[in-house]
Amino acid sequence: MRALIGSDVREDLTDDDLRELYAAPSTPWLRVNMVATVDGAATGESGKSGSINNEPDHRVFNLLRELCDAVVVGAGTLRTEGYVPLRKPLVVVTRSGLVPDRLRGAERGRVRMATCERAEYLDQARELLGEECVHVLGEQQVDLAALKAELVELGLMDLLSEGGPQLLRHMLAQGTVDELTATFVPRLLAGPFPRMTTGLPIDVPLQLAVLLEEDSTLLGRWFTRAGLPARS
Question: Final residue of a domain: which of 125, 156, 187?
Answer without folding.
Answer: 156
